[in-house]
Amino acid sequence: MRIERLILVSLLILLPFLFFPFSFEGYQMPRWFLLRWAIVALWATINWRLWRQRPPGNHIFLPFFIYPFFAFLFFVAISLGGAVNVEAGLLALANLILGASLFFFVSNYLKESEIETFLPFLVIPTLPIALYGIFQLFGLDFVVHQGPFKGAIATFGHRNFVAEYHLILLPLLLYMAFFYPRKGWRWYGIMSLPFVYCHFILTHTRTSYLALMVSLLFLVLAAFLRWRRVQFIVLVFLFLLTSLAFWWFYTLPAGERMVGKAQRTEIKVASGSKEAEFTERAPASLQSRLLIWQATLAAFSKHPVIGLGAGNLNEVLPLYYSDTLRQKLAGKLEAGTSHNEYLQVLAEEGILGGISFALFIFFLLFFGFKTARGFLSKGRFLPLFLTAAILGLCVAGIASAPFQRPVTLFLFYLLAGFVALFGKEGCRSFVLTQNTQRVIFGVFLALVLIPACYFGWGGLLADLYGSKSYHSFRAGKRKEAVFLIKEALRYQPRSRDLLTIAGNTFLHTGDLDAAVAVYHRVTTFHPYWPQGYANLGLALLQKGSGAEAEEYLSYSLQLDPYQPLAYNTLGVLFLEQERYQEAREAFEKALALDPSFLLAKLNLQELERRLRFR
Q: Residue 608: pLDDT above 50?
């Protein structure tokens, strides 16, 4: 029993640190790898109970909201028939099986009393995380962030990540501060609450503000049923403070100026003897989100029945961007999420998959409300706060992508399992022998271990080799960088980011044949990514294959006509072929998109020089 508790407590304490960015990462495989093995550790404790101790019984409970989830899982598998990137679809399917199995074992093999025991260890990391994030605001940092996740007040590498983490755990922190049975942990909750809430407000995450407002409003309404006065006052105060932050962020000029400045400028902070630079991309405005949602619906209308395939919307979404959105992104067109979990499911799994997912969320919340109401009449409040946390995450999914982040997805299924555990009395049960339960456990374990080894182990090694290659290249050790990037590609041969970095490395070391071959793989595995064709055109141009280079550059600009780099490369091609008028037009288009583009200015000056000496 002590070993079991030690593993569970260690897992819950270390869980948030899966948010931290790796030294080099653009595809998040290592996070999923660590998450799977963390859940395997949790299952190991359950297996210990199943084999070494007397099991809770031969009754397996399945709440009614799990049936639409099974239907959704079926439609996810069906949708793979229309997937462009089948590997991404298999990864998405594996992640759903991961969540379903976690929910199944938590709800059937843990006890209600254990939830109270382990809750403090789930909440403990919120205080150091909040303090670290606040230190970042004052220019103190202890980690030099690499890769795409950079930003002050981020802690986990991105402000959205930490905001969603706090969004889930703030209701649980409130419960621990006012209702937890042990006084020492209640004082820890009371001490942590202002720092965590302050850090949450400082993330300036509008979607999480709105989600927490809904979650707190739910708790405020429930407070009329039974609560004492002090808890009600605290809840109302937090609700008003969140509403004020949301209103300030949207309406007050001072707030807009402060947030805009933080997003547009670089913040330099001391990091030992070095300096770390933090830049934060401005979040998509409401107008941009509406345009992205419009593109998602356009993608859904093309494949309404089985969808585009699980995990594949990100691959094809730029094809459906409107000209207005392309202009707003101007040369930074990247395949990204739809910023709406429900629309993304609709586009990827089709109408039937979208309906089944919506029913799953609806019935889960209904089950949580019903369970919380029953326990309120008994003077027990934990199911209410668990439901509030789930509600906040579901609301955040309207304008964000919390279910695509490893830790938030883990917490979602974990809390859903806790709620189902409290509501067992109203669930349908099946009688299974202990040996049958062991077989089910083994099947689930295999379904998680195989993807963990296939996707996760390769991703972890690719991350390590890719990081070393990047640093070797920066240090001028080009031969070593080439060797390391080739090793990375052995483990992640389809990763767009690794392939692009490999192509860039080969290009700068003069191995043009290898660069062309790698860029060809990028366009094969990611056929709708405009930058891949632009990179291939550049490599072919340097190799001397002008006709092929023009073909790929033209196709890249057909996919996204707002790429200053592609126009500049095309202009260089025309310049070499002495097609001066077309070269001028290409350079002028590049400068029209990016007036500060120095290379295009220099190339235009070279064109003028050649014309003068003709």
A: yes
Domain boundaries, the chain: 56-109+288-431, 115-284, 454-612
Model confidence at 37, pLDDT cuts 50, 70, 90, reads low
Looking at residue 273, its pLDDT comes to 34
Query: One-letter amino acid identity for 41?
Result: A
Q: Determine the topology of domain 454-612 in CATH.
A: 1.25.40
Cα–Cα distances in Å, from 82 out to 307, 314, 348, 526, 531?
7, 14, 9, 15, 24
What integer is the mean pLDDT of 558-573? 88
- Which residue, among 341, 342, 323, 343, has the nearest Cα to 333 in the 3D structure? 323
Question: pLDDT tens, 352-391?
Answer: 999 999 999 999 999 999 998 888 888 888 999 999 999 9
Question: What radius of gyration, in Å, describes the C-alpha atoms of the chain?
Answer: 26
461: nearest Cα among 22, 61, 135, 82: 22
Which residue in 425, 420, 450 sits closest to 109, CA to CA? 420
Residue with tokens 């960088």: 481
**Rounded Cα–Cα distance for residues 211 and 193 (Å):** 18
Give the Cα separation of 193 and 122 in Å (integer): 14
Displacement of CA 131 from its chain's centroid (Å): 23
Report the largest interatomic distance among the alpha carbons of the chain, rounded to a whole angstrom. Answer: 92
Token output for 204: 């300036």
Q: Is 333 within 8 Å of 566 (Cβ atoms)?
A: no
- Answer whether 15's CB lies under 8 Å from 9's CB: no
Query: Would you tell me how many other CB atoms lie within 10 Å of the CB of residue 384?
Result: 25
Sign of CA dihedral 435, 436, 441, 444: positive
Considering only residues 270 and 189, tell me which one the structure prediction assigns the higher pLDDT. 189
Judged against a pLDDT cut of 90, whether residue 101 lies above it is answered with no
State how far the Cα of 217 lies from the Cα of 211, in Å rounded to an integer: 10
**CA 172, CA 159: separation in Å to the nearest integer?**
20
* Per-residue pLDDT reduced to its tens digit, 351-360: 999 999 999 9
Q: Which two tokens stand for residue 179?
A: 């209702």
- Could you please report the per-residue DSSP string of 95-108? HHHHHHHHHHHHHH
Q: Which two tokens stand for residue 246?
A: 């949301």
Three-state DSSP at 274 gives strand
The sign of the torsion formed by the CA atoms of 399, 525, 332, 507 equals positive
Q: Which two tokens stand for residue 239?
A: 């609700």
Helix (H, G, I), strand (E, B) or coil at 138: coil
Rounded CA separation 352/445 (Å): 29
Could you list the beta-strand ranges (E) of 188-346: 267-271, 274-278
Query: What gap in Å lies between CA 46 and CA 34, rounded to an integer?
Result: 19
Q: Tokens 């609806």 sit at which residue?
A: 362
Q: Is the pLDDT of residue 552 over 80?
A: yes
For residue 174, give the H/E element and its range. Answer: helix 159-178
